[in-house]
Amino acid sequence: MSANSLAYSEQSGAEAAVELGQETTPTSSAGGAAFGLFSTDFKKNEDLKEMLESTKESLKLEAMKRVVGLIARGKNASELFPAVVKNVASKNIELKKLVYVYLVRYAEEQQDLALLSISTFQRALKDPNQLIRASALRVLSSIRVPIIVPIMMLAIKEAATDLSPYVRKTAAHAIQKLYSLDPDQKEHLVEVIEKLLKDKSTLVAGSVVMAFEEVCPERIDLIHKNYRKLCNLLMDVEEWGQVVIINMLTRYARTQFVSPWRQDGVFEENSEKAFYDSDEEKKEGAAQTKPYVMDPDHRLLLRNTKPLLQSRNTAVVMSVAQLYWHLAPKHEVSVVTKSLVRLLRSHREVQYVVLQNIATMSIQRKGMFEPFMKSFYVRSTDATHIKTLKLEILTNLANEANISTILREFQTYVKSQDKAFAAATIQAIGRCATNISEITDACLNGLVLLLSNRDETVVAESVVVIKKLLQTQPSQHSDIIKHMAKLRVPVPMARASILWLIGEYCEHVPRIAPDVLRKMAKTFTSEEDIVKLQTVNLAAKLYLTNSKQTKLLTQYILNLGKYDQNYDIRDRTRFIRQLIVPNEKSGALSKYARRILLAPKPAPVLQSAFKDRDRFQLGTLSHTLNSKATGYLELSDWPDVAPDQSVRNVEVVEAVRINTRSDCYYRRDEDHSEEKRLCSHSYLVFCSRSDEGQKNGRLEKSGSGSGSASASSEESSSAESSSESGSDSDSGTDQKRNTKPKPIKKVRDVIHVVHCFCLSRLFPVQVSSPVFVPVRPHELLHRMTGKGLAAQYHFPRQPCIYGDHMVSVQLTFNNHGDHALEDIHISEKTSTGQSIHCFRPIGESGSAAVLGRTCSKTERFSVSIQPAVGELLLPVTMTEQDFSREQGKLVGMNESSATITMAPETVSSQPVSKKVVSVANVGVVPSGQDNVHRFAAKLVSSGTLVLVCVVQKDSSAQLTVNTERTVVGSMLLRELQTALSSAP
Amino acid sequence: MIHSLFLINNAGDIFLEKHWKSVISRSVCDYFFEAQDKAGEPDNVSPVIRTPHHYLINIYREKIFFVSVIQTEVPPLFVIEFLHRVAEMFQDYFGECSEVAIKDNVVIVYELLEEMLDNGFPLATESNILKELIKPPTILRSMVNTITGSSNVGETLPTGQLSTIPWRRAGVKYTNNEAYFDVVEEIDAILDKSGTTVFAEIQGVIDACVKLSGMPDLTLSFMNPRLLDDVSFHPCVRFKRWESERVLSFIPPDGNFRLMSYHVNAQNLVAIPVYVRQNINFFETGSSGRVDITVGPKQTMGKTVENVIVTIHMPKVVLSANLTATQGTYTYDPVTKILVWDIGKLNQQKLPNLKGSLSLQSGAPKPEENPSLNIDLKIQQLAISGLKVNRLDMYVEKYKPFKGVKYVTKAGKFQVLTVPSHV
């Protein structure tokens, strides 16, 4: 610890000299933390407290650095909480960060004090700088204090609609934190996840999928609409997100697509075991007649993940490998081999995990890794667990063709200095010998040679393996048994194995067996228990087959066993005696003694330890541990029949209603002033229903419909590349669905509400919900000019779901004609300085169908939407004080006022506000005086504040509008003037 | 995902802990210590350990165990890869990833860990972004900080995190614009006693040091891209261009980075640059053995083989070595039983030789396996596979950069087997 303190004093600032006295006082050893706490550390904390409370920034920083040092070493620094938390609002970034570190560490323990800091974060959540917003959310959500759950929830909802993808990413992380703090919030959190899943930013994708996996992995339905987008974004998502998304998509694909494995038969290379249950195999046979066609979405996933095999991140490569293993047609899986083998060049830990996965794969598909056999050769420098895994794989790969090479390699391993590894090699040889009958004899001979090895473990292992091998074909190998009988192996397990072998096959070695028993009888008392048990067994078996020679010996051994210290042996002895020595007490059992003791025993099956690991998804922790880890999600079996594919079809969010009303959203560009270009000219195109016309219309639709709609809605540059690919897939699906009726999307009210939160961040005032006013429709197209089609628009005064710089406009179409209209859409925009988020073409406009008319016409009409200036506002709420303060700032140029004569009906206060609100979308500011009415709003496009004040004096009134945008101000003034002076 | 991280030194001291979720008592490490005891060698510790309530995933690097605590299912490679990134980041920041360096810079370490993970999920792992957030310590900066009381935390907030090119920061400016590429190849080989190649392959990497202003867009092409069999890229490389044209097109990160690593096509015969004639004998009687090793150049394409080092892990019974080297020096460590012969440059005319006797523990049986030799070497100006960079072009930016390509061949896992003498 003293070394540490010295290190600190090097770093420390000008105060180093002052502290030096304290630093050099002998402190307790680093290990005795608990003791140190009460003695010197406590004293140190006292001076830390002083430093934290000082006014000098550098002193505070120095103190915080030392506090963080304490935390890092696991020391308790919680008593400093009050002193530290005061600095949470510091201007110094590093100090602030260190305070955050401290806060996150101790907030759980000091919940009440931690609440002091919350307001700071709430303020920071509204900071114009996205990174500050994000970091505030990060810390706020990391404070594990249950009381602030509602605040966190609100902050997350707000951040989820933030303009900055970085903040939204942070929100996705916060979801998981809140969920672990309070699982009851799940329902609300799932809503936020659903929204974030729609996000097109590559930054957000990985994090939100992570949140999805943690909070609601069972809600697979949320993925449908985002599936194609995720596949297309995958290449550009950061590495860690890729891993999470690929794993999730693997699970998804297994529930949504049919098995691609039907045609190529099940595991042509490994007939002994099928991956799937036998009943599925039968089904496969039946299904052979119908050729399998892969779902294009299934192919999309495989195609888009393949390049990631070239990633430098080993986790990404592994996750793609497991995806191919679980999802790709059999003949395609081998593309991952090379990449997996490449990973073996990486760190030891990586090798360990990759080798485990290869071991599982190589059981089922030898062919995949056989060409790379040499990569699995063991090196003397490998760690033991790596060696064993390589051995496992080599054994799995062994076949008639390569066994001689492998055995030669094994021979060098047996001589290894690492004896545990040598023993494992012998086991492996045994496995090869049983699997490949051609080499059984060669292996046996090799193993017998090893019996003369000097090392006990090698010999013992050989005996055990030989025993297993002999069980398969004992009659031919009596000479080996004889050889073994002569062995003097000190390892008990091996001795026991030899005794068992001789007992079992005593008929093959009739002359030696009694002699072995005689020798064992001599040393019986000094043997290990396991050997004693086998000696008793041997005696019993010999007694049954060759009682003439061994009767006395057996009696002797049974007597020894009777007085053994171990009760297992005493029990066994008593049992054997009753069984084989007939007397009057022994019942019917002794008749069957021979059948009991000398029953033919099945040969043990030597198989890989990785045999049953394929029940786990490859690459998972559960697979590595070979047991189900907490939170493991099962990979489901392929469905027999593919679920509806159309669920993945994506449409641009739109609001087509059955009565052919549609919402149209447009956004204003900020660099243009609003007042001049308040109208936008658009052409409405529709074609009459006919065969030809239908074709025409469709073509236009797929071109201008989805493409332009999504392109105009994007504004962040980071999303641009993704939107391209997104719209590609959109139009692709469009064409496919040509003949199907278009599903109708409903407007999501949730989004509207949440957008209010979103706007509130831009300005330090709360956006309030608009006051209800009766709808005032404006005519867009008259039915006469429109040849039967009439269109109206009004401003629903709801926040736009496409972006908070846009104003929503609701269009209503009515067909007054006598034939159906189709494919109504906005074809081109001659708007200046505005961007319109188009609605999707409306498929059909229902009317009385006139059959038999074959006219094909495409009509276009020029229309214009002229929004009143009052509709370009969003109401905000503020207090009277705030209002006066803001008004005080907006004087001179920014103020326009007029005196008006009010209509007599409007003298009382109620009608005044009603009138103002009907003209402009403003919020009412509570007022103390009866004759003064205040209204506040802001411009949707720029967020500029607009303040309206009406001061009544008898029948006349003073009307004032304050805003930075003077033109807006004067226009609004004029409109209000007309509204207020006119009769209701 | 990653719940907590403990850094443990070889002596078993937990010298740093960091929690990203609620605090987990350090007593969880007892399970790790138990596994460590069982494993003996640090390398033998299983990377994944199960405890009743947690899973411990650990890596061992630079004599430090990075032990992370996991609570739920997560791909183990995800954690392992991340831990290695952490170690590399320490290396990058402090020049070494050692206990001393970490303890000296504990505050920076903490700030780094805080930025790298949020709620256990990786947030910023790109060195470029982190260096903007937290400035690496330099002697000059720490002096300035001491005097002015300023800090290591970046005043400006990084932009890279928000752009589509997260690996490069905006507004890079250099007076000398330079781009260097090192093509480094390693030969992995196993030779048997007669010198026959049992197994050989070439693995290569291209490390780059790019110091270019602005947002340059580079294209690197090879004379013989067919040689490359299996490749992996830094995320900056456009994979589509590689697929179609076999060129590397990328906007480089600023500073040092690994552009690609590759594996040379297995069909090509690997040139083995050296040969080794060796004879290691242990005698049945007299507790002694003999060593006679000669190293000579083989296929070197006319270049000199440098930095040749022969390392032998002797059997446990070897007590000491009494040898003479005609070139270079040798050392034998009786504790680790490692014999190291540092030869240096290989001379065609006078081949270096190491000869002498070994003394064994008396009474012990003679070792049954002869040790294998591990060889280290280096050849400048040569990529043993024959890979050659054709040209490097720069787009977008106007200035003329200085470009350089360097080739080096090294021995990777280069092993020479010795057949047991009693056969």
UniProtKB/TrEMBL annotation, chain A:
Keywords, alphabetical: Cytoplasmic vesicle, Golgi apparatus, Membrane, Phosphoprotein, Protein transport, Transport
Described purpose of this protein according to its UniProt entry: Subunit of non-clathrin- and clathrin-associated adaptor protein complex 3 (AP-3) that plays a role in protein sorting in the late-Golgi/trans-Golgi network (TGN) and/or endosomes. The AP complexes mediate both the recruitment of clathrin to membranes and the recognition of sorting signals within the cytosolic tails of transmembrane cargo molecules. AP-3 appears to be involved in the sorting of a subset of transmembrane proteins targeted to lysosomes and lysosome-related organelles.
Protein family according to the UniProt entry: Belongs to the adaptor complexes large subunit family.
GO biological process: intracellular protein transport; vesicle-mediated transport
Domain AP-3 complex subunit beta C-terminal: 745-859
Gene3D superfamilies: Leucine-rich Repeat Variant
A family per Pfam: AP3B1_C
Protein known as: AP-3 complex subunit beta
Domain Beta-adaptin appendage C-terminal subdomain: start-end pairs: 872-981
GO cellular component: AP-3 adaptor complex; clathrin adaptor complex; clathrin-coated vesicle membrane; Golgi apparatus
Bias (Low complexity): 707-732
Top-level taxon of the source organism: Eukaryota
Cellular localization per UniProt: Cytoplasmic vesicle, Clathrin-coated vesicle membrane; Golgi apparatus
Residue ranges, annotated region (Disordered): 694-743
Database matches in InterPro entries: AP3_beta, AP3B1/2_C, AP3B_C, AP_beta, ARM-like, ARM-type_fold, B-adaptin_app_sub_C, Clathrin/coatomer_adapt-like_N
Signal peptide: none
Membrane-related topology note: Peripheral membrane protein
From TrEMBL, chain B:
GO BP, one annotated term: intracellular protein transport
Key words, A-Z: Cytoplasmic vesicle, Golgi apparatus, Membrane, Protein transport, Transport
Subcellular location, record wording: Golgi apparatus; Cytoplasmic vesicle membrane
GO CC terms in record: clathrin adaptor complex; cytoplasmic vesicle membrane; Golgi apparatus
Coiled-coil residue spans: none
Lineage top rank: taxon: Eukaryota
Record domain MHD: where: 176-417
Membrane topology field: Peripheral membrane protein
Primary location group: Golgi
PROSITE patterns assigned to the protein according to its UniProt record, in alphabetical order: CLAT_ADAPTOR_M_1 (PS00990), CLAT_ADAPTOR_M_2 (PS00991), MHD (PS51072)
Function: Part of the AP-3 complex, an adaptor-related complex which is not clathrin-associated. The complex is associated with the Golgi region as well as more peripheral structures. It facilitates the budding of vesicles from the Golgi membrane and may be directly involved in trafficking to lysosomes.
Family, similarity comment: Belongs to the adaptor complexes medium subunit family.
Stored PANTHER family: AP COMPLEX SUBUNIT MU
Protein name: AP-3 complex subunit mu-1
Organism: Pygocentrus nattereri (Red-bellied piranha)
This protein's encoding gene: AP3M1
